[in-house]
Backbone:
């Protein structure tokens, strides 16, 4: 922890970071996001295995959009999101630093999203065997069973949009659910509207999702949202090859090439 | 009333549509049910929820004077979902209206005083209601001055009424357009509302100023009025925070503990000074 | 009415619930689903979950559903027929197994929906609702009802309150006329009061602050940077408002199906960026800090001022639900300890 606090102190002292987004102790045993811009407060910061929030989500929030020099504590999930976000040109005006934990749980400073991308390597998004198992169980259901399952699950969705708010890839300044001319997605929470919302979100995540699990973790109702995102990751891999996180990977559903074999978009 | 559904609108017939300016229309609305027309009353400054069935409700003031009975008028600019649907309505269509809501301009308290109306752009409609209300009881007030500004000549609303006010001996009308908004034959003022007010406003003594306009216009006009000697309790305006219900329940329009829909929309500058900066 | 005390055994309590279900009454009770406990309509007494501290969502939907039809319309040419809310179709409903803080959460809603204009739709649902709460014998880190004027055995808002007294018995308090009506239908299931003090069976939750003190403090610190500090990690979702028993902010939306449709009221949240956004692009509560301040001020200052009720029953749901671990009780405590010079 001493090395961690030292790195943060130096970043703040040198002005390389005007704001540090890290973790601190939260309610009970929880860890929570912490925002520090005063070197006197670095003692608050912790970084251990219980830290799970994907802090890259804050980098695109309106409150922090105009802060240029930010240092972020990055878990492997956060790193993936940062690299994808950088690939989507979200950090062009930013000077970012990252504090990551190496294999021996030592804090390591990485300056710049490109350097972080190199550090991460060409990581492939792959499901763990436990996740595969869960998906297999779900896929063993008949079509009718699956539909009944989602009807039951989504009837509990209250549309609080915690999944969207916690997702680092959901940074649109005007989300589809907020467009009302035309009204693509109905505003109230109803079974049909809830389906529309979650299908829309899944489509916008295709090839972009970094499988950080933030959406499901954020859902107060405990909806199994990662079944959708993980199944999508599998589908993409099956039809387009491995889902590699890098700054130059184009996402599958918002890439258009003139020589595309599908012609519906022309 | 206590046991009835407060969200039920009056069905209203769009009696007449007037194109005021690009994107701006005035609807004259008649009550479809005779008993609604009979029991409906309102006072200057109040507002309502206008609805296109299947699209939703939108909040704006009643732009006609309570002295003109049997109908209400509203003027709106096409900007959001509901105003776009309203724009597509034709004469004879049925829309919904519920209201009136909110407080009023205290015309009775203003008896014997001079009235100075200052309006900018699409904010003339809330003012028009008070102007006609005052003109319909003209003898209650002394001098009446109207200063109205818009971005361009084309953006001026109620052109026929501006003409009518201009031709009255008992009204002083000053119309201005922003620099660059004038046409070659424009005979009115050119300049922003605050500076035109500074140049043309009557003396502050015994005068009530009523100011409606976009936030930036209000922000720069109030200090001018104070400089001219108006005290903050003689300057009135109406706030237009986002609303859904109109009766203090939906939680949107409050500025601190003050609900624009219930305690407003009419406020004096003095009251505004006491509010947090959340409007 | 004066509260009446009786005793009821566990098995008779089950019989009471079964009898309500058998008579065809609509009963809503805590049910386990997805590792969460939610209030759902039950068909059998065995569905009821009783080993939970708190349901994820409050019971407010029984009087203020997350989406409800306010009126229906039908267009024929230029004519529109409007059908009023079907007041007579609101079924009598029994809320079984709520906590005292669930029942207490209806007081703020009653206030909001009845100051000035009376919301007949809300009132009808409320009138049809009988609340049978169970005192708390356990609590968790997020609970702070005692600081909000409530408590694990508080009777306010409940029609009947059951306090488990061990050894298969319970203390039954009949609090209102609705509770009395239910009691009178099933008198034989109840026995004379045993005269025991229910306090001994309740969980103990320390009172850490006082609502009047909070009111004074949050008002004094309106311009403080504390709102920005606390909301720094707020991601702007509506989870806190949607799980809250006292949050009543709503939106009105039309739902169109061809030539007919309905006008709906649905939950909304002051935490959403769009909540106060004007069509012009101007937003009076532009930052999350302002929205967080509004949330706290509304509950602890504006509501006490305007409708004489605190907009919080201390149930702690917002803190449990917050994906960024914003803990309301903790944040209030911080404000309580702030000194004037910290502004």
Residues:
């Amino acid at each position: 922890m001493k090395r961690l606090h030292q790195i943060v102190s130096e970043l703040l002292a040198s002005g390389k970071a005007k704001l540090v987004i890290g973790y601190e102790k939260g309610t009970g045993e929880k860890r929570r996001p912490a925002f520090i811009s005063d070197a006197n407060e670095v003692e608050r910061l912790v970084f251990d295995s219980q830290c799970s929030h994907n802090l890259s989500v804050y980098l695109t929030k309106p409150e922090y959009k105009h802060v240029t020099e930010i240092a972020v504590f990055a878990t492997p999930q956060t790193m993936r999101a940062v690299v994808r976000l950088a690939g989507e040109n979200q950090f062009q005006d930013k000077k970012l630093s990252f504090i990551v934990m190496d294999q021996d749980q030592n804090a390591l400073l990485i300056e710049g999203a490109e350097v972080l991308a190199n550090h991460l390597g060409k990581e492939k998004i792959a499901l763990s065997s436990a996740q595969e198992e869960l998906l297999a169980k779900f896929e063993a259901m008949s079509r009718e069973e699956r539909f009944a399952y989602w009807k039951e699950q989504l009837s509990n969705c209250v549309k609080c949009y915690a999944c969207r708010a916690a997702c680092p890839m959901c940074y649109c300044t005007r989300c589809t659910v907020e467009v009302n001319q035309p009204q693509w997605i109905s505003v109230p929470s109803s079974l049909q509207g809830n389906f529309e919302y979650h299908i829309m979100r899944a489509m916008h995540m295709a090839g972009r999702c970094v499988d950080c699990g933030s959406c499901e973790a954020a859902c107060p109702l405990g909806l199994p949202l990662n079944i959708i995102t993980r199944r999508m990751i599998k589908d993409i891999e099956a039809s387009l090859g491995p889902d590699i996180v890098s700054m130059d990977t184009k996402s599958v559903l918002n890439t258009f090439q003139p020589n595309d074999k599908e012609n519906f978009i022309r | 009333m206590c046991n009835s559904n407060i969200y039920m609108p009056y069905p209203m017939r769009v009696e007449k549509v007037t194109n005021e300016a690009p994107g701006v229309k005035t609807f004259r609305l008649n009550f479809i049910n005779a008993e609604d027309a009979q029991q409906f009353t309102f006072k200057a400054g109040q507002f309502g929820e206008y609805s296109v069935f299947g699209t939703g409700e939108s909040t704006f003031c009643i732009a006609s004077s309570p002295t003109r009975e049997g109908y209400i008028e509203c003027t709106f600019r096409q900007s959001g979902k509901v105003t776009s649907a309203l724009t597509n309505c034709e004469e004879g269509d049925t829309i919904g209206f519920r209201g009136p809501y909110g407080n009023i301009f205290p015309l009775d308290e203003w008896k014997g005083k001079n009235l100075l109306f200052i309006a900018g752009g699409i904010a003339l409609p809330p003012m028009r209601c008070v102007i006609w209300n005052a003109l319909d009881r003209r003898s209650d007030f002394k001098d009446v001055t109207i200063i109205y500004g818009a971005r361009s000549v084309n953006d001026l609303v109620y052109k026929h009424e501006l003409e009518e006010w201009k031709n009255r001996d008992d009204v002083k009308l000053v119309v201005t357009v922003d620099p660059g908004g004038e046409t070659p034959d424009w005979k009115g003022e050119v300049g922003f509302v605050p500076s035109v007010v500074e140049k043309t406003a009557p003396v502050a003594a015994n005068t009530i100023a009523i100011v409606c306009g976009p936030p930036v216009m209000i922000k720069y006009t109030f200090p001018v009025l104070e400089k001219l000697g108006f005290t903050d309790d003689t300057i009135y305006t109406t706030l237009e925070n986002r609303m859904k219900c109109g009766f203090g329940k939906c939680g949107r329009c409050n500025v601190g503990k003050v609900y624009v829909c219930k305690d407003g929309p009419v406020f004096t500058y003095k009251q505004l000074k006491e509010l947090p900066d959340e409007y | 009415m004066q509260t009446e005390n009786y005793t009821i055994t566990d098995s008779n309590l089950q019989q009471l619930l079964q009898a309500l279900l058998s008579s065809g009454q609509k009963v809503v009770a805590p049910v386990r689903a997805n590792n969460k406990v939610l209030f759902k309509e039950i068909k059998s007494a065995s569905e009821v979950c009783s080993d939970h501290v708190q349901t994820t969502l409050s019971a407010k939907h029984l009087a203020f559903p997350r989406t409800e039809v306010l009126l229906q319309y039908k267009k024929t040419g230029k004519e529109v027929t409007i059908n009023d809310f079907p007041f007579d179709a609101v079924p009598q409903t029994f809320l079984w197994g709520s906590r005292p803080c669930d029942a207490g959460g209806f007081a703020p809603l009653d206030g909001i929906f009845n100051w000035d204009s009376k919301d007949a739709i809300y009132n009808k649902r409320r009138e049809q609702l009988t609340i049978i709460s169970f005192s708390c014998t356990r609590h968790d880190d997020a609970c702070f009802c005692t600081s909000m004027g409530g408590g694990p055995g508080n009777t306010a808002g409940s029609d009947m309150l059951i306090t488990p007294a061990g050894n298969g018995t319970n203390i039954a308090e009949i609090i209102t006329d609705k509770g009395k009506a239910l009691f009178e239908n099933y008198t034989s299931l109840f026995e004379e009061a045993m005269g025991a003090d229910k306090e001994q069976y309740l969980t103990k939750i320390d009172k850490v602050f006082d609502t009047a003190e909070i009111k004074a403090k949050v008002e004094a610190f309106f311009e403080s940077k504390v709102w920005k500090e606390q909301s720094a990690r707020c991601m702007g979702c509506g989870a806190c408002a949607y799980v809250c028993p006292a949050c009543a902010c709503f939106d009105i939306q039309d739902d169109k199906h061809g030539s007919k449709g309905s006008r709906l009221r649905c939950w909304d949240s002051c935490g959403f960026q769009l909540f106060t956004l004007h069509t012009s692009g101007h937003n009076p509560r532009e930052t999350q800090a302002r929205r967080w301040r509004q949330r706290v001020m509304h509950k602890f200052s504006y509501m006490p001022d305007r409708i004489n009720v605190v907009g919080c029953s201390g149930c702690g749901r917002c803190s449990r639900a917050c994906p960024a671990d914003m803990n309301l009780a903790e944040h209030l405590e911080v404000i309580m300890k702030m000194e004037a010079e910290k502004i």
User: Anything to note?
Assistant: Chain C is about 30% helix and 20% strand. Chain C touches chain B through 50 residues (CB under 8 Å).
